[in-house]
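Module 6 notes. Inverse folding takes a fixed backbone as the condition and produces residue identities as the prediction. Think of it as a translation problem where the source language is geometry and the target language is the twenty amino acids. Below is one complete input and output pair. Work through it position by position during the lab.
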């Protein structure tokens, strides 16, 4: 199976790049290891179809390139709800403080229908020959000005290759022949993986009891296990949920224990109404082998994101390392993923 460009990874960078290549009639294939598209954009639906974001969620007004893409695709956004009382839990021995937040001067926004709407729209024009799921790349060989990309199931051939995997994952899960430069491997192994150590959870409710009691749903806690919490109702305000983050070390607990501790903390914040939920969802990103690769040493958030080494091509400018971690601006955000796709697209046209 041969194409001009082979893209590894069907997340935002890979799908936006494919969208742009298709507009120019440049042949490509995207291979994706998972059985779904989106990568670290992952909107799950509860049984009553309440959308809950387990991955990338918010957009700021500073994310101009992403906003332009959404406008082009005719995907509207709506403002994150923060009206009402916010809670701050500074210590376990004291009740949470009630804080009246001022109107948000720089509001965050969410995509109507969930962030997955962006992914689905970008993928909607791709054929099954162009977008192939359940294809995990295992090796990349550069022979006679052509790449052979092996997966568990097939061999692919392309003149140019773009990896959108987190760099650390790329250099530890795909065998290169010839090898990548040693310094590139060293930098990649010390590049922070966006979302990699996050635990996200969401709880759906039949009614927005927090709004009814003049709470915004916004919580910040130094105690845990919940560290941040936000209203996660849909744009029509017909589906209701709370969504937030758990302390990173909570991955060591069982799901049953995590859920129990979350509900106990929510009851402490909001009373017994918090226990009347319809469904609990969570995502431990470090347990996803297609996202996370553990380190023996600490890597700072955004460490080496946008490093100069990612701005050049390899193997005579025919292999490119892309994705939000490689963006020179907004690394680790959806905006970074968009900027990376735009940058690689220009390089592929040269």
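Target side of the pair, the amino acids:
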């Amino acid at each position: 199976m041969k194409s001009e460009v082979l893209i590894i990874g069907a997340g935002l960078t890979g799908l936006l790049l494919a969208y742009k290549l298709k507009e120019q009639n440049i042949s490509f294939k995207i291979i994706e290891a998972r059985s779904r598209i989106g990568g670290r954009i992952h909107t799950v639906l509860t049984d009553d179809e309440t959308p809950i974001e387990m991955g990338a969620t918010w957009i700021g007004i500073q994310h101009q390139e992403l906003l332009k893409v959404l406008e082009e695709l005719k995907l509207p956004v709506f403002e994150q709800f923060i009206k009402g009382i916010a809670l701050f839990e500074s210590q376990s021995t004291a009740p949470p403080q009630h804080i009246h937040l001022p109107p948000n001067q720089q509001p965050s926004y969410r995509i109507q229908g969930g962030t997955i709407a962006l992914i689905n729209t970008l993928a909607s024009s791709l054929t099954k020959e162009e977008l192939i799921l359940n294809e995990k790349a295992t090796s990349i060989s550069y022979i006679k000005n052509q790449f052979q990309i092996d997966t568990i199931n097939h061999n692919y051939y392309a003149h140019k290759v773009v990896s959108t995997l987190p760099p650390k994952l790329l250099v530890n899960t795909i065998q290169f022949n010839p090898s990548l430069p040693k310094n590139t491997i060293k930098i990649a192994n010390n590049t922070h993986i966006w979302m990699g150590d996050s635990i996200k959870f969401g709880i759906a409710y039949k009614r927005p009891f927090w709004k009814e009691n003049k709470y915004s749903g916004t919580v910040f806690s130094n105690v845990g296990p919940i560290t941040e919490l936000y209203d996660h109702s849909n744009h029509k305000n017909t589906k209701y949920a709370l969504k937030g983050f758990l302390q990173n070390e909570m991955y060591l607990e069982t799901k049953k224990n995590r859920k129990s501790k979350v509900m106990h903390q929510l009851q402490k914040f909001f009373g017994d109404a918090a226990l009347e939920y319809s469904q609990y969802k969570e995502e431990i990103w470090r347990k996803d082998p297609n996202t996370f690769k553990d380190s023996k040493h600490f890597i700072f958030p955004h460490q080496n994101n946008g490093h100069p080494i990612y701005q050049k091509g390899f193997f005579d400018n025919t292999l490119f390392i892309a994705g939000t971690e490689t963006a020179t601006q907004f690394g680790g955000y959806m905006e970074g993923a968009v900027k990376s796709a735009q940058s690689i697209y220009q390089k592929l046209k040269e």
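Reference fact for the lab report: The helical segments are 12-23, 64-72, 116-123, 167-173, 182-189, 209-212, 255-270, 334-349.
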